[in-house]
């Protein structure tokens, strides 16, 4: 089962794995509030946990200060927007709009991106036309970046270093490196070489697979999943869970209780933990979406890294809403052609259960193989447990059958004893009473049966004949067992058989001579 990651990514740091584009979500501004929208795009890493872009929007009163993330050890945490005098922004923005573009470990933040980064516009200042102006400026910047990108693409495959036939050879070698998804492309004597990677759009080692998804129809399980690096084995990780819980409680304060559970062990020394937060006052679980948005704040990654002693990787979750799934499917991932992405969506065997997932490069394929091996091992372990359970049940069934037979024999014996006792009591009770009509009729029936059994030609005669045959068979078997052969008789039998054998051999020899004589006479004639 694949998990989906909604962790946020800083625009200046390329992520590892595969990015699926950036989507913006807008929220209509309301009077007295300012909106902040932030895009977060996850990665498809070694744990086969691919991610989707999410948008978290929060509001705060324009007449109060912005909220800030409580540090480790403070007890001022709240899942609802709170106001402090701190100028830093955590749960909401104050008259500002932030948007992060997807980098995804490719050519950087903008180079060779097949789709221009979409931007959102916020409410800033007092002019109602400023969002349109900002959008126009951003579109102009995107067009300029696209032109620069196209120029740089052309220079990679048509370098100008020596201004002779060697440039063509270098251009062809750059093409091979681009198709392979690795290497450095030298295209100018005045610029540093460009380094290819697997997420580039020219990489040929890519394909589309399908992963099973879950929808968020069930609201009972309010848990968020976190991917961690394992230090040691599983027992050490379970021991460390208590420390992680204490760190979380210190970060959230005394108003909330935290429960961490180990969900799965992944290859490459990684593990998945589930986090559920309960409010002590109401004993209600914090909703998954609200908890996830809190953990996906820009400033929360460092705090989560401190909570998990530097082993935090990213925030995951296993369910997708229809809106989030449509957002993921609307934009092709970086490095995947739009036509291929559209064809993959059309060839989806079951859109309600599966979603297309790109595999780019050998690392992604290797990670998928590792996950499949892990799944096979888990299935084999589960199958072994089922076999052991079936064997134990068969043993229990055999013991139950033996006990049942014993109880049945005891029941028959007790029934016979009870019947015998009832007969004795009934006889004692009716000893002084006259014989009733039913009893006299029963006596007559029994006498008739007894007389029929004693008739010599019927049952009694058959029984006598069978008894005589059994006695005779028993006597014959005793005679056979007691008889011992005599050696003289054996010698006579042996001598007789030898004489018979000699006679047969003489007869055969005589026949052969006669046949030879007849053949010779026939040949002479």
UniProtKB/TrEMBL annotation:
<dbReference type="GO" id="GO:0006999">
    <property type="term" value="P:nuclear pore organization"/>
</dbReference>
<feature type="domain" description="Nucleoporin Nup54 alpha-helical">
    <location>
        <begin position="332"/>
        <end position="470"/>
    </location>
</feature>
<dbReference type="InterPro" id="IPR025712">
    <property type="entry name" value="Nup54_alpha-helical_dom"/>
</dbReference>
<dbReference type="InterPro" id="IPR024864">
    <property type="entry name" value="Nup54/Nup57/Nup44"/>
</dbReference>
<keyword id="KW-0813">Transport</keyword>
<protein>
    <recommendedName>
        <fullName>Nucleoporin Nup54 alpha-helical domain-containing protein</fullName>
    </recommendedName>
</protein>
<dbReference type="GO" id="GO:0044613">
    <property type="term" value="C:nuclear pore central transport channel"/>
</dbReference>
<feature type="compositionally biased region" description="Polar residues">
    <location>
        <begin position="122"/>
        <end position="131"/>
    </location>
</feature>
<feature type="compositionally biased region" description="Low complexity">
    <location>
        <begin position="132"/>
        <end position="151"/>
    </location>
</feature>
<dbReference type="GO" id="GO:0017056">
    <property type="term" value="F:structural constituent of nuclear pore"/>
</dbReference>
<dbReference type="GO" id="GO:0006607">
    <property type="term" value="P:NLS-bearing protein import into nucleus"/>
</dbReference>
<keyword id="KW-0539">Nucleus</keyword>
<feature type="region of interest" description="Disordered">
    <location>
        <begin position="122"/>
        <end position="151"/>
    </location>
</feature>
<dbReference type="GO" id="GO:0036228">
    <property type="term" value="P:protein localization to nuclear inner membrane"/>
</dbReference>
<dbReference type="Pfam" id="PF13874">
    <property type="entry name" value="Nup54"/>
</dbReference>
């Amino acid at each position: 089962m694949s998990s989906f990651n909604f962790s946020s990514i800083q625009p200046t740091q390329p992520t590892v794995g595969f990015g699926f584009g950036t989507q913006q979500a807008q929220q209509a501004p309301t009077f007295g509030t300012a909106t902040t929208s932030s895009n977060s795009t996850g990665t498809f890493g070694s744990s086969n946990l691919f991610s989707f872009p999410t948008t978290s929007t929060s509001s705060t009163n324009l007449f109060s200060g912005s909220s800030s993330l409580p540090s480790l050890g403070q007890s001022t945490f709240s899942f609802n927007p709170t106001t402090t005098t701190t100028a830093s922004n955590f749960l909401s923005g104050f008259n500002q709009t932030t948007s992060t573009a997807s980098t995804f470990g490719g050519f950087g933040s903008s180079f060779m991106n097949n789709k221009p980064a979409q931007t959102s516009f916020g409410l800033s200042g007092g002019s109602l036309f400023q969002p349109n102006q900002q959008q126009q400026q951003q579109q102009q910047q995107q067009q300029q970046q696209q032109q620069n990108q196209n120029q740089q693409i052309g220079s990679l495959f048509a370098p100008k270093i020596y201004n002779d036939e060697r440039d063509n050879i270098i251009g062809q070698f750059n093409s091979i490196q681009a198709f392979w998804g690795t290497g450095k492309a030298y295209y100018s004597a005045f610029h540093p070489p460009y380094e290819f990677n697997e997420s580039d759009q020219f990489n040929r080692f890519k394909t589309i697979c399908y992963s099973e998804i879950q929808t968020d129809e069930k609201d009972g399980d309010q848990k968020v999943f976190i991917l961690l690096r394992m230090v040691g084995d599983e027992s050490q990780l379970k021991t460390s869970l208590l420390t992680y819980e204490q760190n979380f409680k210190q970060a959230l304060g005394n108003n909330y209780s935290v429960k961490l559970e180990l969900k799965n062990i992944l290859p490459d020394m990684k593990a998945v933990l589930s986090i559920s937060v309960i409010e002590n006052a109401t004993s209600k679980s914090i909703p998954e979406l609200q908890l996830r948005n809190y953990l996906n704040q820009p400033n929360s990654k460092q705090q989560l890294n401190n909570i998990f002693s530097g082993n935090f990787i990213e925030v995951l979750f296993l369910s997708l809403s229809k809106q989030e799934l449509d957002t993921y499917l609307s934009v092709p991932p970086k490095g995947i052609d739009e036509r291929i992405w559209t064809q993959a969506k059309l060839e989806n065997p079951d859109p309600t259960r599966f979603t297309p997932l790109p595999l780019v490069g050998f690392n992604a394929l290797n990670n998928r193989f590792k996950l499949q091996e892990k799944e096979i091992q888990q299935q084999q372990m589960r199958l072994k447990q089922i076999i052991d359970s079936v064997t134990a049940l068969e043993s229990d069934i055999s013991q139950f059958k033996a006990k049942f037979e014993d109880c049945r024999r005891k029941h028959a014996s007790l029934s016979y004893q009870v019947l015998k006792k009832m007969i004795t009591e009934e006889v004692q009770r009716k000893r002084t009473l006259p014989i009733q009509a039913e009893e006299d009729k029963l006596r007559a029936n029994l006498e008739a049966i007894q007389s029929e059994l004693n008739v010599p030609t019927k049952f009694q005669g058959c029984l006598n004949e069978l008894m005589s045959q059994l006695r005779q068979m028993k006597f014959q078997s005793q005679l056979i067992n007691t008889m011992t052969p005599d050696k003289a008789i054996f010698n006579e039998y042996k001598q007789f058989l030898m004489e018979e054998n000699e006679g047969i051999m003489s007869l055969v020899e005589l026949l052969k001579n006669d046949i030879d004589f007849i053949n010779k006479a026939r040949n002479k004639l």
